[in-house]
Amino acid sequence: MKILTSVTLFFLSLVSINAQTTNLSGRVFDHNGAVVLGSKIHIKSSKEKKTLVKTPNDEGVYSVSLAPGFYSIEVQTAGFKKFEIKKYRIVSSDKMCLDIVLEIESTY
């Protein structure tokens, strides 16, 4: 019985650890749906005060695991306006999606 309890507690702890992060993913593109290469996504936790920097792949797709909480998300790419969300809430979930649409910076 003691071994069964230990094994059960071990598996419950794995489920608990897995449930503590959420996979945030999405695409970075312009208003025409074209991938914006060279983007850097800065994700800053309001709780931990640390910043993660993610670079989308060649298809504009990014993915990051985050603990539940509030984050500021910023994307700056040459030729485009800065994209910024000051308080984006990550909830305890398997997956969340945030597609980022960048606007072309006006030249006048």
| Content of β-strand | 35-45%
Our Rg estimate from Cα atoms comes to: 18 Å
Helical fraction: 10-25%
- What would you call the shape? globular
Secondary-structure topology with pairs:
Layout: H1 2-19, E1 22-30, E2 40-45, E3 51-54, E4 61-66, E5 69-76, E6 83-90, E7 95-97, E8 100-102
Q: Explain this structure to me?
A:
With 108 residues, the protein is an alpha/beta fold. It is 17% helix and 44% strand. The chain has one helix at 2-19; strands at 22-30, 40-45, 51-54, 61-66, 69-76, 83-90, 95-97, 100-102. The strands form two sheets. Strands 1, 4, 7 and 8 form a four-stranded mixed β-sheet that branches. Strands 3-2-5-6 form a four-stranded antiparallel β-sheet, with no helix packed on it. It starts with a helix and ends in a 6-residue tail after the last strand.
